[in-house]
Specification:
CATH class: Mainly Alpha
Oligomer: single chain
Shape: globular
Number of helices: 3
Helix content: 25-40%
Radius of gyration: 13 Å
CATH topology: Arc Repressor Mutant, subunit A
Distance between the termini: 19 Å
Number of strands: 5
Largest sheet: 3 strands, antiparallel
């Protein structure tokens, strides 16, 4: 199943889901490009908006479903230790780059 990739969820350890590889990889690359290297980071809304210009129009026409994919990738990157979130509200996110993939 090369067209699917297994994603994790930081909120539900041990649970995985299989999702479309092309969309996952496109969003992952976009998010890792736009996320800052440390706090204070970006809000979820800022992440979604900043990632959109980096997404292929063929996969995300007009940014359609980008929000769902951003959340899916965010939870996966956090579970892998590649992304962190603030403890305060609103949540803010940044790249850690210290996790094992």
């Amino acid at each position: 199943m090369a067209d699917k990739v297994e994603v994790r969820n930081v909120n539900v350890p041990g649970r995985t889901e299989r999702v479309d590889r092309a969309k996952y990889e496109a969003m992952r690359a976009a998010m890792l490009t736009i996320l800052p290297d440390g706090p204070p980071g970006l809000t979820g809304k800022e992440v979604r908006e900043a990632a959109k210009p980096h997404l292929p129009e063929a996969l995300f026409p007009g940014g359609k479903t980008a929000g769902w994919w951003a959340k899916t990738v965010q939870l996966d990157l956090e579970a892998r230790g590649l992304m962190a979130r603030s403890a305060s509200s609103p949540l803010r996110f940044w790249r850690t780059g210290t996790g094992a993939d």
